[in-house]
Design brief:
alpha/beta; 176 residues; Alpha/beta knot; single chain; 7-stranded parallel β-sheet; globular
Length: 176
Amino acid sequence: MKLGAKELRTKSPTLEEFGKIKKNPVYIILDNVLDTYNIGAIFRLADAVAAKKVILCGESEVPPHTRIKKASINTTEWVTWEYAETAVLAIKNLKLEIGNLTVVAIEQSPKSVAYDEFDYQFPLVLVVGHESDGVSNEVLKIADAIVEIPMWGVNKSLNVMVSLGIVLFKAMEKSR
């Protein structure tokens, strides 16, 4: 189905429509993600899977921001989000609020496991990091797991939003 800009930029759901959406126990943390188009696209991903919350951390820009709004196709209007000073603080706050949860960093690391071999448990926190520096070492130390997407070509990494999308939809397979 081909959709134009007008069809993509839907109006905000009514309170009744929003109330019918069952939120999935998924929390997405952006650890110093700087590219505003990545941030906006991550809001679209969060909406696509009905994630409970997006948490923007550190130097990540926050809505309202023109480029975030454009890339998100207005999903920033109804996806629940908040800002935390650091991703570590965001994780600690979620643990206090929710209790038992699984924190998974998406990062290349000697300690990582293949994203498609990990047993995702809910409630689930997925952490993505800075486009060049990755997920902070502080987060990697407290994560329950680090998952990695294999790279078979010349390029050594994928865009942060693409990586999140791959892992997020793999994790969601378990909830269906």
